[in-house]
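Backbones bend. Shown next:

***
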Amino acid sequence: MISPKHVAIIMDGNGRWGIEKKNSRNYGHKKGLVSVEKVIDAAIEKKIKYLTLFVFSTENWKRPISEVTYLFKLLSNFIDKEIKNLLNKNIKIKVIGNINPFPNELKTKIKKVEKLSINNNKIQINMALNYGSRQEILNSVKIIKEKKLSANKKNFEKYLYTNGIPDPDILIRTGDTQRISNFLIWQLVYTEIFFVKKMWPDFTKKDFFKIIDKFKNISRNFGGLNGGVK
């Protein structure tokens, strides 16, 4: 049985959960952070080396400004509250995406936690912020053309946000929606995908562990017949 090195998660359902519970999408986003903390601990417990969280997509700008502002506030407060804890747990934080449009104060905090955690190595948490896979692919192609490099897999992957990060073994999407929503299109070609009916605030460590155990019993052939591992 092979253990996963990299788990990616689309944390869907926060807003719908919040509407059902308190008639507030923001309440759902706030409670979703509790699940984030639980899953980080679960990933460490299972010795996952990379955990990628789809925090804010390029499409999320289409939401009401009040919700976007609240999401930024939540992220800012989370960094303030958890930065010492993250560092003490030997967690490395890396951003994938383009945070240039973010408020300056938030950008400063994000860059600070990246810098402070750069040498940590228990687990790397990739925060997908203002991330869109199509834009990531176009950016890489643009750089290759500007540098007049050969259009090959090695050069293409070098200029993706995920350069140096192994492709996900597992993608989890909560919220009872079965699509990948412009997330890691290139990187998910051989990823095992688990769609979960639960909304993200209801997702637990037990749910995470069940998926890891299921993965370990999957034969992965990567397109071949005899090259699979179990």
